[in-house]
Amino acid sequence: MLSVEENALLTQVGPGTPGGDLFRRYWHPIAAVLEMDEEPTKEIRLLGEDLVLYKNRSGGYGLIERLCAHRRVNLAYGIPEENGLRCMYHGWMYDETGQCIEQPFEETVRPESRFKDKIKLNGYPVQPYGGILWAYLGPAPAPMIPHWEPFEWPNAFRDVGFAKLDCNWLQCQENSLDPVHLEWLHGYWGEYQQKIRAESQGIDKVLVNTNPLNHQKIGFDIFDYGVVKRRVVEGNDETHGDWTLGHPALFPNILFVGDIIKCSMQYRVPIDDENTMHVTLFVYKAAEGHEIPDQDRIPYFEVPLHYEDGKVIADLVNHQDFVAWVTQGPIVDRTLERLGESDRGIILWRKLIKEQIAIVQDGGDPMCVFRDAEKNKSVELPLERWPGMGKNERYSGGYVPAQAGEEQSDIDRIMETLATWAGATPSG
Ligand code: FES
Ligand SMILES: [Fe+2]
Q: pLDDT band at residue 202, thresholds of 50, 70 and 90?
């Protein structure tokens, strides 16, 4: 149970708040590179700030305050020019730093005017990496975008999904320090939801999300980049990879989960105190002897939260997590919760956040801020082998192109499946 003040400290992300200062030490994924090729402006709300992301005609990116300094129209409706974004109302133009660089009428009637020099919107750096655009809202100099190993796996296929969730980011992240929910939310309730869905669709076959896992023991260890979560389930012991390797929650807001051929990185990006953009990078390795072409653009998709009939999607693993997080409310009232043994990881994560906030307040770099290129080369992470993976021989060494007699390759199938999010990597 927390005090009102502690809950605010852990959940607030706006400018000037301790948590906001912490989050402003990291690069955040805000869009797919491909998205900006299709539509060169996009409204972004990040850490409580309303911004517009744009791609200029020279191929550069800008992320600046959303409302024009002149008379406050929305610059997402502006025109990307060679070196800036032009407001559609009276033609003022801004560069990627937010500096106003043109004021057509002002310059016509008073050519000597330096009025534009005094006009500056907030502007933040944007960098492409791994097919994703990343933004940094913190003090200069900006650190490096972490090159976690899934971004660097060779001969792998990637795509990225975006889900807008009406809840604070910490509700999503605390789930990643809570192994026991796998057994209940994804096991027992998941099966129940799958049965309901199958019946409503008149389908006999019921898919089961997970093996029935009865947790016997859970453990958590702080490591360089966050916390490794471990579990022993009935039938296994401490020699199993679930315990010896576990899988990590990366500070402050990432889950890494999967196995050696398929994994996901889940970023819980705070839009503001009450909303989160859940960004998931999926990575699929090709089987040995098969080549996947390099991707300079990766496919992206918006994750639907409801079926066409309006019902909440609750029979798929990631959606079960979404339902749990969102139903806790916009910001869960942690003054009323009653924590037990299953919550030791959550308590540890909260302690870590407070410690890292203190480091930032003392002028230091918190966990997972990279400034040394040598240390930022395909950063290796602990990786749990998921139960059941490897049982299917076809997938034991990676994904393969279409086999004789098959119309679709694995990659085609994944793309199709991902369109409904049904093939999402188990989370837990
Ligand atoms: S409101 Fe943008 S130029 Fe006038
Ligand atoms: Fe989960």
A: confident
Angle at 425 between CA 265 and CA 376, to 5 degrees: 20
CA distances from 192 to 184, 207, 286, 299, 422 (A): 10, 10, 34, 32, 17
Residues 236 and 333 in one domain: yes
| Residue 400, domain CATH | 3.90.380
Residue that terminates a domain, selected from 136, 167, 196: 136
Task: State the pLDDT at residue 262.
Answer: 83
Ligand 1 lined by 71 (C-beta under 6 Å): yes
pTM of the model: 0.91
101 with 219, same domain: the answer is no
Ligand 1 near 89 CB (within 6 A): yes
Q: Are strands 156-165 and 300-302 parallel, antiparallel or unpaired?
A: parallel
Strand partners, 148: 379
Same domain, 390 and 348: yes
User: Does residue 400 sit in the same domain as residue 265?
Assistant: yes
**What band does 393 get if pLDDT is binned at 50, 70 and 90?**
very low
